[in-house]
Write a structure and sequence with these properties.
single chain, mainly alpha, two-stranded antiparallel ribbon
């Protein structure tokens, strides 16, 4: 699946792939999620079942926004997608800590863990795909066997110089031009067998 050539890919000169599109989508998702965590941490704490975690959710929001901006701004988002994978593992560990018998919202926590697992799977798939593309691009050998180094094919350039108008200052000086019997001799000294003669 190839996109418009104007979109940037992870490697210069490589076509825009589905992994690049997924990385861009994850960047926007990360920014949206981070803003939600910054604006409504208490609401998310109750919805996810992870109680008393407003300050943690705000910290996660800062991380998400920063990661999302880095993904969208970077020419190669691969390290930032792997950073998302690390952040997902922290999120899962935080949610799993609330999955105990005393929490009345264990079902909410279970749904939260399920959503985090799906997001982590998408992040891992994207990171692995981008890493594989970088490896392929690094191992590829450029083939220049069909290039001549000229801007156009030789058959189009033959005789092209004849149509150029030679500037006056690049013409052969009169004394150095080849002598023609039909034209008057140039003024000046001529070099004979015994040296210069008038």
């Amino acid at each position: 699946m190839s996109g418009a050539p104007t979109k940037s890919a992870a490697i210069a000169g490589r076509s825009y792939s589905k992994h690049d599109a997924l990385a861009r989508g994850l960047g926007y998702f990360s920014i949206g999620l981070g803003l939600a965590e910054l604006v409504a941490p208490r609401l998310l704490s109750r919805a996810t079942g992870v109680k008393d975690s407003e300050h943690i959710i705000r910290a996660f929001g800062v991380r998400e926004v920063a990661t999302g901006l880095a993904i969208l701004a970077s020419h190669d988002p691969t390290p930032w997608i792997w950073g998302r994978v690390g952040g997902d593992l922290i999120d899962i560990a935080t949610a799993a800590s609330a999955l105990d018998g005393k929490n009345p919202k264990r079902e909410n926590v279970a749904l939260t863990l399920l959503a985090l697992a799906a997001t982590t799977a998408a992040d891992i798939a994207c990171a692995i795909g981008l890493t594989a593309q970088k490896q392929i691009a690094t191992d590829a050998v450029a083939d220049y066997s069909k290039r001549s180094g000229f801007p156009r094919a030789p058959r189009f350039m033959r005789g092209a110089a004849r149509d150029l108008e030679v500037p006056t200052d690049m013409r052969i000086p009169e004394l150095l031009r080849p002598y023609d019997e039909g034209t008057p001799k140039p003024k000046g000294r001529a070099l004979g067998a015994k040296g210069l003669r008038p």
